Amino acid sequence: MKFILPITFIAILIFSSCEKTSITNGPDIQPPLVALSYDGANNDAPLLPAATYEAATMFPKEDISDLLGGKLIEVYYYIRDVPVSSTIKIYKKSDSDGPLDLIYSEVTTNDLKGRSWNKHILKSPVEITDDDLWISLKFTHTSQTGSIGCDLGPAVDNGDWLLDSADGLWIPLSQRAGININWNIRGVVDPG
Hints:
The chain is mainly β and 192 residues long. The chain has one domain (4-190): Jelly Rolls (Sandwich), CATH 2.60.120. It is built from two helices and ten strands; from the N terminus they run αβββββββββαβ. The chain has helices at residues 4-14, 173-177; strands at 34-36, 51-59, 71-79, 85-95, 98-107, 116-127, 133-141, 161-164, 169-172, 185-190. The protein has a six-stranded antiparallel β-sheet. The N and C termini lie far apart (55 Å). 38% of the residues are buried.
């Protein structure tokens, strides 16, 4: 136990809060399209150690019930420093351990632009059903890097989920490292 505690403490110190670099509001989504997001303008990106992660926002079925039958058609996400690899993932359903059903996955590594908002048009739009909806970006770092963007916070429920390959657990970043932000990940729904 004496060995594990210092390593855990060091790992938490490696995470850095989002410190202001420049504010980038993000995409302008016009009606009738509907934006799904918990974040504010981009502020920076927390430094994460070398590993594979998934940063996600989760929209509970109760919160998106008015969009039933609509289609998720695009995902916007802010990248500060380009990671080694990236994949957009969409899940439906969840339990207390995280998302359950992967329904969309697309590698986006070759499309990434650093220090900007990135747009991914889903090749197969995802219907909004009576299930929780998770929008995530899976990415890999080979050294400490700040890749996925965040706002100034404070964190809101379901705006800062993080899966770390080191432990394989979905835990909000605010609980994992005490960093109080929301990921710059946004969905765009065509309500139909």
